[in-house]
UniProtKB/TrEMBL annotation:
Coiled coil: none annotated. SUPFAM superfamilies: Concanavalin A-like lectins/glucanases, P-loop containing nucleoside triphosphate hydrolases. InterPro entries: ConA-like_dom_sf, DUF1349, P-loop_NTPase. This is DUF1349 domain-containing protein. It comes from Clostridium weizhouense. It comes from the Bacteria.
Length: 372
């Protein structure tokens, strides 16, 4: 059955112009060709309908692997959009409905005026599952990176007239693992790694008073290794968005609290605000791969006693965002955990590398599935 919203748009455009040009795009194996042919079948009893499939330039795939950046080379050189535009113009002369389907149709540099732009929504997980056994690595690596580049540069989903879900995964709402504000019982799913001596679930949030000489850090620069910060977590293999709002009363140097994602002692990341006594506090993120920590920081221009943190997971990639002084969300870091392990621990953490007594109240915490 044809999507009612799309049917209405097509009917409206034909009434206005007598003809319509429809662009259909999506990630690899999202079903573009099948959808375009079904659309043609639906309308061809009443209209003259043409379907144009965007084909790769000859040998482009092989040529791209000779470049130091194969996905970028493919993105820039895979298709002859000038020739595609000529094909559309020829079909437009004789057809009432022209349907064009293919990858990268909605690049910023593509000069084609589609009357209707359609995005077939599909997760990368399903795209990989739909591929043949011998090509799963190709679709899970080469084509995934190609299309993530397309998303970053062109924001194709933000340009379309209609998004049609063509993936059973997307038919269900994302799972909410933990929701402090709306489902306090969900906190019972969480476990402590290095449980603090003093903590409680309160009406206003999750209260923790830190123990002394606690921290997460591995080797780099300082030489020492600490792996005993207080972490309240769930475990999941799924992609997710994790958000927390926290209030804190820092006392000692290096007191800190925020969010953490952990594979094991040698592979993890955290984000927090760290207290620096008479110096400005440090907002930062630590990414630890293969037992070595890497700390990116920036000084805040004033003392703060609350903040919001957000971490989004997409496969092995993570985006860290912060909202300090209610200035709105901003990106702090994009990073990668190299471990092959899919299962991770994710949640809130706090610690006091010097002495105990740091009081922290997490007033909000939500961890929900993110389709990727």
């Amino acid at each position: 059955m044809l999507n009612e919203e799309l049917s209405s748009l097509i009917h409206k455009k034909i009434e206005e112009n007598g003809k319509v040009v429809i662009g259909i795009s999506g990630i690899s194996l999202s079903g573009k060709t099948t959808f375009a042919n079904k659309l043609k079948e639906f309308y061809e009893s009443n209209y003259d309908v043409s379907v144009i499939s965007l084909d790769e330039n000859e040998d482009i795939f092989k040529e791209s692997f000779n470049d130091k950046n194969p996905c970028k080379f493919y993105y820039e050189n895979a298709y002859d959009f000038y020739n595609l535009k000529r094909k559309i113009e020829e079909c437009y002369k004789k057809s009432d409905i022209v349907i064009v389907e293919g990858l990268l149709l909605f690049k910023n540099t593509v000069d084609i005026n589609f009357d209707i732009k359609v995005w077939l929504d599909c997760t990368f997980t399903s795209s990989i599952e739909r591929s043949s056994k011998d090509k799963k690595e190709l679709y899970g690596d080469y084509f995934m990176w190609l299309q993530r580049q397309h998303f970053s540069i062109d924001n194709p989903k933000g340009k379309v007239d209609i998004i049609i879900k063509n993936d059973k995964v997307l038919e269900n709402d994302p799972e909410v693992f933990v929701d402090l504000l709306n489902n306090k019982e969900s906190l019972n799913k969480m476990k402590w790694l290095y449980e603090p001596s003093a903590w409680e679930f309160r009406e206003d949030g999750i209260f923790v008073k830190t123990d002394r000489i606690t921290d997460f850090w591995q080797r780099t620069h300082y030489g020492f290794r600490n792996d005993n910060a207080h972490m309240l977590y769930i475990e999941t293999e799924k992609d997710f968005i994790m958000t927390t709002k926290v209030k804190f009363n820092a006392i000692h140097q290096f007191d800190q609290c925020g969010l953490v994602v952990r594979v094991d002692e040698d592979n993890w990341l955290k984000t927090s605000i760290e207290y620096e006594l008479s110096n400005p506090p440090k907002l930062g993120a630590v990414v630890t791969n293969l037992g070595y920590s890497d700390w990116s920081t920036e000084e805040l221009d004033s003392e703060v006693n609350e903040a919001e943190f957000r971490i989004s997971r997409e496969g092995k990639d993570y985006k860290i965002e912060v909202n300090v002084l209610n200035r709105g969300w901003r990106q702090l870091r994009i990073c990668h955990l190299h471990s092959e392990e899919k299962m991770v621990k994710c949640g809130i953490y706090c610690c006091s590398p010097i002495d105990n007594g740091y009081e922290v109240l997490f007033t909000d915490l939500k961890i929900e599935e993110k389709y990727f």
